[in-house]
Amino acid sequence: MAAATEKGIGKIIFSSSLGTLIEWYDFYIFGMLAKTISVQFFPEGNATAALLSTLAIFAAGFLVRPFGALVFGRLGDLVGRKYTFLLTLVLMGGSTFLIGMVPGYKTIGIAAPLLVLLLRLIQGLALGGEYGGAATYVAEHAPPNRRGYFTAWIQTTATLGLFVALGIILLIKTNMSDAAFTAEWGGWRYPFWISILLVGVSIYIRLKMSESPLYAALKTAGTTSVNPIKESFGHRANFKMVLLALFGAVMGQGVIWYTGQFYAQSFLENVVKIEFMQNREILLWAIGLATPFFLFFGWLSDKIGRKWIMLTGMLLGVIFYRPIFGTLLRDANAKEWVEEHDKKSEMSLIESTIKGDTTFNVKTGLLIINNVDEQWEFEENKFIEKRKDTLIPAEGVIASASTNPAGSSTDFFLQVIPDSKPFYSNIELNNTLKWKFIFLVWVMIIFVTMAYGPIAAFLVELFPTKIRYTSMSLPYHIGNGVFGGLVPFIATLLATTFTNDPLVGLWYPIAVAALCFIIGALYLSNKIDKDVND
Amino acid sequence: MEKIKKSAESFKASPSGGGLEGAVKKIMGLIWMLLAPVIIFFLVKSAVHNIGSGGTKDINQPVPWVIIITIFTPIAIGLMIFGYYAMKGEYDHLPESSEEL
Does B101 reside within a domain? Predict the structure, then answer.
């Protein structure tokens, strides 16, 4: 079967990648807007809504994605690649748009979280079917010596989907107030509505595509699979390759992907306490600068084989995750800055705010201000110190403080005793540190590009045409959805159990990637399968 | 004698099936088999320990654990089967065409 011409393959890659990128975008915006969605649809204090929220988070990624891989994989092997991934695109785009149209809990009550849960599950189902179809479709058009490079375009879509989602949310958020963004029909809905436009364009392009030539040939010859699920997982010879793909490649790739991008972002925000906008900026730069490397490693895999590139990405993660995350934590440690620089004598106070919640104890004569926010600047790094101040009043101040504590000026007090355990947040790094952080996150995304760039070609070459969609989709979505998706959950579990080490959560991705590296190094072959026509 | 001869021939035919590498692959197969029940045991133990411990995080809710254990049990069984195949030497030679599948 002749591969598509260079011009033809460009169109095929573009139309396949665009749709897949949109699907990733649709899937990510829900996660990125989880806080706002939670307020709108899953209000605190309602047990049913809380249960539905948990289901929306866990079931969509862990249960429905692999199930979608089976459902649509089977369909793709039975009726063809083109119509199957058109269907997944319609389902994904439709459900994303509809999430943006569901009225909030305040308006329609429990129907709101129920509808959102249902739509989120459809999203998970559609995502489970999309990737395998797009990767298979491109690979089946590609010449053998460029399969890694061409399928690497599909591999860029997950990261670019994250990039577009981050960018659009950031753009909307910077152009409106927080209140306008989080209102019931506020700006948070725009990214969902935008999806329908993107999907419309992608469907139009995909409708013009023809069926994969290898699949079309099977169809003409009448040799397509009658029962792809049974053939994929019921036949020992094929099933053992599914297991090898999962444990020797995709499981490790999944945790490397998730840790380098999602976990890095949440670590910077929740542990290092980097300011919201700067955190996104760091990630956007790192992703933008690393994305071309998906193509590079896909191209390289055509020259030297897929196995060792993927495994090197995993090994580098195993070796460097703790040093990299440790550096991120150490370099932006506002507490240390305060301690090292003579209690702020070298720092400038930009703003000090007392945020109410002030109590006056008549017996002791002490005024306790529970929320003091002070913004400090130090070598162009900014941070907010939140603390509790205890004020000892001067004579005659007691009476006025007791009637109007929040409005009392600290000038009237003899002594201010600051809380010995202040809380530091909203850290804005100076330019040098910011670029250092961008570099460190970039390095972690380079590990992602190594592990993920060649994996589509690797999976396609592992399975025969007639059951390829089903066989490669399931391990891919278990590896990424389950092993990768579990990173934050297991990280919380480890952090709760071992409270002394802030980097303890990294042991999960490190262990999974190490295990996968050993299995892959022992059992995988580095041989490139020249002929995927069989 | 005939049996030894056949076995030597199959060793030659398999590029990575024999020798130290083959032995390591088989021994490690046993480790993958044992690892599967250990993973499930730790998941169940962690679930019991964390559910109802008074916390408000996801790890303290039963639903995520039910979902995770439900999805991880077949995966762990898969790891066990993978280990069994490895121990039997089924990964000593990987198929080179779809006809072998």
Answer: no
Nearest-Cα distance to chain B for A347, in Å, is 37
- B64 and A489 within 8 Å at the Cβ level: the answer is yes
ipTM score for this prediction: 0.83
By the CB < 8 Å criterion, does A246 face chain B? yes
Q: Specify if B9 maps to a domain.
A: no
Tell me if A493 and B75 make a contact (CB, 8 A cut-off): no
Name the strand (E) or helix (H) holding A496. Answer: helix A487-497
Provide the residue range defining the domain that includes B56: 27-93
pLDDT tens, N- to C-terminus, chain A (534 residues): 445 566 688 888 998 898 889 888 988 898 888 888 888 888 877 777 777 787 777 777 778 889 999 999 999 999 888 889 889 989 999 999 999 999 998 899 889 989 999 999 999 999 888 888 889 889 988 988 899 999 999 999 999 999 999 999 999 999 999 899 999 999 999 999 999 998 898 888 888 888 888 888 888 888 888 888 888 888 888 999 999 999 999 999 999 999 999 899 889 988 999 998 899 999 999 999 999 999 999 999 999 999 999 999 999 999 999 999 999 999 998 888 888 766 667 788 888 887 766 777 767 777 777 788 888 888 888 888 888 878 776 665 555 555 555 444 555 566 677 777 888 889 999 999 999 999 999 999 999 999 999 999 999 999 988 888 899 999 999 999 899 988 888 888 888 888 889 899 999 999 999 999 999 999 998 877 766 666
Beta bridge partners of A427: A274
Does residue A54 sit at the B interface (CB-CB below 8 Å)? yes
Q: Single out the residue of A485, A529, A509, A516 nearest to residue A158, CA to CA.
A: A485
Q: Is A47 on the interface with B (CB under 8 A)?
A: no
Measured CA to CA, the distance from residue A70 to residue A474 in angstroms comes to 6
- Report how far residue A451's alpha carbon sits from residue A283's, in angstroms, rounded to the nearest whole number: 19
The sign one gets for the Cα dihedral A340, A342, A343, A349 is: negative
Q: Under CATH, to which class is A6-332+430-523 assigned?
A: mainly alpha
Measured torsion, CA atoms of residues A101, A107, A109, A110, in degrees rounded to the nearest 10: 0
Q: How many domains does chain B have?
A: 1
Instruction: Give residues 24 to 53 of B whose Cβ lies within 8 Å of A.
Output: 24-25, 28, 32, 46, 50
Among the partner-chain residues B32, B46, B97, the one whose CB lies closest to the CB of A534 is: B97
In contact, A137 and A16? CB cutoff 8 Å: yes
Q: Which residues contact B10 (CB under 8 A, 6 or more apart)?
A: B17
B99 CB near a chain A CB, below 8 Å? yes
Q: Is residue B19 a part of any domain in this protein?
A: no
Domain ranges of chain A: 6-332+430-523, 334-428
Residue B100 lies in a domain: no
